[in-house]
Amino acid sequence: MTTNTMTMSLNVTKIRQDFPNLHIQVHGKPLVYLDNAATTFKPKVVIDTILKHYQSGTSNVHRGIHYLSERATQDFETTREKVKDFINARKALEIIFTKGTTESINLVTNSYGRTFLQKGDEIIISGMEHHSNIVPWQILCEEKGCVLRVVPINDNGELIFGEFLKFLGPKTKLVSMVYVSNSLGTINPIKKVIEAAHRLKIPVLVDAAQAVSHIKVDVQDLDCDFLAFSGHKLFGPTGVGILYGKEELLEKMPPYQGGGDMIASVSFEKTTYNVLPHKFEAGTPNVADVIGLGAAIDYVQSIGLENIAEYEEELLAYGTKILKSILGLKLIGTAKHKASILSFILPSIHPHDLGTLVNEEGIAIRTGHHCTQPVMKRFNVPATARASLAFYNTKEELDRLVAAITKAKEIFSD
Amino acid sequence: MDYDSRTELYQQMILEHNKKPRNFHKIENATHTAEGYNPLCGDHINIYLQLKNDSIIDDISFIGDGCAISKASASMMTTALKGKTIEEANVLFDQFHKLIKGELVPERDKNALGKLTTFTGIWHFPARVKCASLCWHTMKGALNQVVKPVSTE
C-alpha cells in the first residue's frame, strides 16, 4: 500500500490510522468505504472530543454561571470562531448552528423567503440540485405564488451558464445553487454565478454540503450571501450544520423558530429577540456535536484542504481511468471540473444488484437516485451506482472496487 | 448467516428469469391492472390480469423496469399465479411475504410456494426485500382495482 500512496501529497497510511471505522471487516473482508458523499467517517479525535464532553463536560450553554456551563459555552463559541475562520467569514455572528444543510436552507426559505419574496418573484436553481435545495423552494413557491426556474445541465453534467444568464432578470429575487453536485461530482462555477447575480443585486445561497470537504471555501472571496453545509460530511458528527449569512441580511431577517436562547426578554405583551447569531438558535443546541465539529475542522485544517484536493484529484483520475476500462461501464457526470465522485451505470446490471454484489465483497457504494431524481431523469436512468472518495481512500481500494464489479459482471453474464 | 448462503441471493433461477422474463408483455384486454413504483430504487412495474368468472386468473403479465430481483420476482409470480383462483393467489401472497420476512421456513412450514422458495433468505438483505415484494403488492392492488400507483413506501 505504501508505495502507491507515499508518492502522493498525503501520508494516507498514517491518516487511515486516525479513522477507527476504516478498520472493520464486512462479510469477512476489510471494509472499503466509498460512500463519503453520503457521510464521512470521523477521526478518533472527533469521537474523543464528544466522549469527553459527555464524560466530564456535560452542560447546557449560555445559561448557568457554574463551571461546566461556562466551559461548555466557551467550547461551543470557540467552534463558531473555528467555522468562521474555516470559511473566512467576517464575523462569528454570521455563523448559525443548525442541524444540517437541509435545515440551513429551510431557515433561509422560511425566514428570508417568506419575508422578502412575493407573488410572481422568481427563484433560480440548477438542474443538479439535491432535493433539499428543490423542495423547500417549491413549498415557498406554492405558498407565495413565486416561480422556480431551473437552469439546465449539459450531457457532461455541467451547468449551462448561458442559460443561467438568460434566466436572470428583474423578477429574479434569489439564486440558490449547489457548489459541488452530490450525484455527478460537478464543481459549478459558483463565483461566476454569484458575480452575475450580484450585477442585478440578487442574493445567492450556496449549497456547499459536498464542497467543504474537497475545496477551500472562502465566503468573502466568493461573496456569497448565504452558504450551507453539514458537519457530518466534513468528518464531524451528524446533527450539526452551518448556515453562513452576511450580517446585514441576517439582521433584517425575522427569527426562524421561537423559544429559549433566541430572546432578549419575554413578556406576554412584547417579546424582543436576541442578537445574532442567537436570534436563529432557538432552544438548547446540539452542544456535544457542535464541539465535535470544532475538532473535525481542526483535523481537516491540520491536513490542509489544498493537500486534500491535490490527493483527491489524483485518486479521481485513477478511479476514472480504471472504471472506464470496464467494458460497457458508462460514467454519469463527466464535467471538466469535478470533485472525487464517480457515478456510473452498467448495461447488464441494475445499480441495486451491483450494490448488493459489491457489498458482499466488503465494499460500500451508494446506489439509487442520490436524492437527485431530476438528475436521473435528465440522464434517462432510474438510478446510478456511486463511489464517492475521501482523502483516506486509496488506489488499492479502487482496484478492489473494479475487481468486485468484474466479478458481478461474471455472475450476470451467460 | 454464513458467507456461502449470502451469495445465494443471485441464484441461477433468478438470473435466468431476469434475463428472460416470462409473461413480459401487456395484456390488451386486461380486466384488472395496476402500476407499482418503488421510489427508493426507481423500480417500476405494471401488472395486467385477465380474470375468468371474477374468480380465476386466466392470464397474468407484467411490464416494467427494475433490478434483477424485482424482475425475476415478477416473472416467477406470473408463472405461479396463472390458472390460480383469487383465493389461492391471496394464500400465496401471504406465504410469499412470510417467506421474504424470514417468518416462513420452506423446509419446516407447509406451503404452496414451489419455485418461489428461491427467494428464501432475501430477508438477510433488508434493502432488497421490497424489490421482491413490489410485484406482489401491485398484483394485489390490481385485484382490488386500485387505480392510483401502488407504492412500497
Description:
The complex is a heterodimer of chains A (414) and B (153). Chain A contains 15 helices and 17 strands. With 414 residues, chain A is α/β, with parallel strands linked by helices. Chain A has two domains: 138 residues, Alpha-Beta Complex (Aspartate Aminotransferase, domain 1); 256 residues, Aspartate Aminotransferase, domain 2, CATH 3.40.640.10. Chain A has a seven-stranded mixed β-sheet with strand order 4-10-9-8-7-5-6, with helices on both faces. A four-stranded antiparallel β-sheet of chain A has the order 13-14-17-16, with helices on one face. A two-stranded antiparallel ribbon of chain A has the order 1-2. In chain A, helix 9 links the parallel strand 8 and strand 9. Chain B is an alpha+beta fold. Chain B has a single domain, classed as Sufe protein. Chain: A (Alpha-Beta Complex). Helix content of chain B is 37%, strand content 19%. Chain B has five helices and four strands, in the order H-H-E-E-E-H-H-H-E. In chain B, strand 2 and strand 3 form a beta hairpin. The longest helix of chain B has 15 residues. In chain B, 40% of the residues are buried. At the A-B interface, helix 13 of A face loops of B.
